[in-house]
Amino acid sequence: MALSEVEQRVTAEIGRRREELVELASALVRFDTTAREPDDPAREEAALQEYLAGRLAAAGAETDVWEPAREEVAGSRLVPAGGLGFEGRPQLAARFPGSGGGRSLLLNGHIDVVSSVPREAWTSDPNEPEVRDGKLYGRGSCDMKGGVAAMTLAAVVLAELGVRLAGDLVVCTVTDEESTGAGGVAAVAHGVSADAGIVTEPSSFDIWTSCRGSLLPTITIPGRPGHAGVGQPHWRDGGAVSAIEQATVVIDALRALGEEWRSRPDHSHPHLSPGDIVPTVISGGEWIVSYPASCRIEYHVAYLPVHGDESGWGPRVEEEIVERVQRAAASEPWLAENPPTIEWRTGVPSSEVSPDEPVVRTLLGASADIGRPRRVSGMDSWHDGATFTLFGGTPCVCFGPRDLGAAHTIDEYVLVDDLVDCAQELAVAAMRFCELAR
């Protein structure tokens, strides 16, 4: 199928507005929207959202910028146990109303970015975007302000060219994806939904239909303090025990479980890596000449959608982790009588949509007809589309510019050509998914 006359007109217009797209992405990079800890003050999230709302409203969108109330996200496992406020961190939903009778499409992206530390390692100021050799550099240019700019311009060009869609086109930008996922939860609670959604994460133009979930256990291994420079009797006779040495029992057990997962059929997926168990933080000991009284190990546990329940969470994976730790502890006399404890921090759910979803077929067809065939794959990490899919009834995929390898790095960048390509393909996909008004 070739591009229609109106599709050719739209893609050509996006190509002509290349510099405008670069400036839009650059403007977003200039706002400091660094991801936060729960008690951090607001940064420039509100200013960014108002800037985007102004661009979208000028093109005819009905815009809604709101600060969610704490109770709107309370109880979600994507929100820290102590709760989360959104003062100074609004969400944005802009709707281009359709004429009726067509499917609605959501374009989503997050505006928060990871820290730029160490700033002195950057070639140029991370919040002062700079184009060099066809690449737009700056914190968030790749993850994912470039994608946000592309989806925004795609929607704006359709409206400004008078291309009326039958279904609604919704542009939604949220906070707090990098830190918690609470922004997506707030958008779903606010009623943001559509017949399907595209999240413009840097997928290298793959269509990500699946993502792994993650669990974040903290395992505390007890010891018994004592003077490290004094000979100690057996622990049953009151002697000291090193919690750090005892921790190796747990580390070895979970390493073995992770290796087992890599060869188990239920951990095989056509688009995702097997589940894995990675120790990420360890702390133990109180004094250089004392036996450590405790040792804490924090883990990142990734699991496949097949191991998730109906909400994407992995209770069976939790049970397997607990069972393996308990079994290992039972084999070590000290730990058998002084077992480790496990606490579970906020994680993220796994998610998967069928490759036969209309939004997938539409994206594949639009890209192929433009002359850039794409493929279906998955994201080993997580994205807000899982929240809209699982809790908002909006089946979402990811589709965005290259590439995740440039995200979170020093001298983060996005290819300028990719911004244009992404906006063109999103615009054609929107026309086909929502259909043109008759």
Report on the architecture of this protein.
This protein has 438 residues and is an alpha/beta fold. It folds into 2 domains: 5-211 and 350-434, Zn peptidases (Aminopeptidase, 3-Layer(aba) Sandwich); 213-348, Alpha-Beta Plaits (2-Layer Sandwich), CATH 3.30.70.360. It is 35% helix and 20% strand. The protein has 12 helices and 16 strands. A 6-stranded mixed beta sheet has the order 1-2-6-3-7-15, with helices on both faces. Strands 10-11-9-12 form a 4-stranded antiparallel beta sheet, with helices on one face. A 3-stranded antiparallel beta sheet has the order 4-5-16. Helix 2 packs across helix 5 and helix 10 packs across helix 12 (416-434). The longest helix has 21 residues, at 243-263. The radius of gyration is 24 Å and the shape is elongated. The mean pLDDT is 97.
